Amino acid sequence: MSASAEEKDVYDEINITPMLDLAYVLLLIFIIMTTATVQGIKVNLPKASAQPSLAVSKTKAVTIAADGTIYLDTFAVTMVELENLLRQYKAATPDLPVIIKADSTIEYQRVVDVLDLLGRLEISQLGLVTQRIVK
User: Fold this and answer.
1) Backbone angles phi, psi at 108, to 5 degrees
2) Is residue 115 within 8 Å of 100, Cβ to Cβ?
3) Strand boundaries in the chain, DSSP class E
4) Spans of the chain, pLDDT less than 70
5) How many whole angstroms separate alpha carbon 73 and alpha carbon 99?
6) What is the pLDDT of residue 55?
7) pLDDT value at position 131?
8) N or C, fewer C-beta in 10 Å, the chain?
């Protein structure tokens, strides 16, 4: 084979992989730069701790069913039992997180009673579970 035939074979196909890599890098830089330059109103955001405020493993859920039955996690309890159990959990975990899930048809007073109980026990990490409205 002659030298000219070998040179012709070398440039027969163009490898587009480096060009695609370059295009992806440029696209990534473009996306980062456009999102970095979008500015809104500057505010000082509050600082949060590294740990989530309501740790799922130790969070207690108080559920009020449509018939007014109160559940602690999955066990039906009375208000007195609820107070005693939460007091025990609070003694073991001082920053005990509690979430309240209440049926939308129950009397508002039932929720207020549970909130009052949590206030007496000085449980400050509290969440109210709601359902997102899909439009």
Assistant:
1) -60, -30
2) yes
3) 60-64, 70-72, 75-77, 97-102, 125-128
4) 1-12, 36-57, 132-135
5) 10
6) 47
7) 73
8) C
- Sequence spans of domains, the chain: 60-128
State how far the Cα of 107 lies from the Cα of 109, in Å rounded to an integer. Answer: 5
The pLDDT, as a whole number, for residue 73 is 85
> Distance between CA atoms of 90 and 58, rounded to whole angstroms?
11
**Separation between Cα atoms, residue 31 and residue 24, nearest integer Å:** 10
Tokens of 93: 């975990």
| Structure confidence at residue 105 (pLDDT) | 83
Nearest Cα residue to 112 out of 53, 58, 60, 64: 64
pLDDT tens digit sequence for 21-40: 999 999 998 888 777 655 55
Give CATH for domain 60-128.
3.30.420.270
Q: What phi-psi label fits residue 33: left (phi over 0), alpha (psi between -120 and 50 degrees) or beta? A: alpha
Which residues neighbour 68 within 8 Å (Cβ) at sequence distance 6 or greater?
106, 107, 110
Residue 33: what residue type? M
* Number of Cβ within a 10 Å radius of residue 118: 21
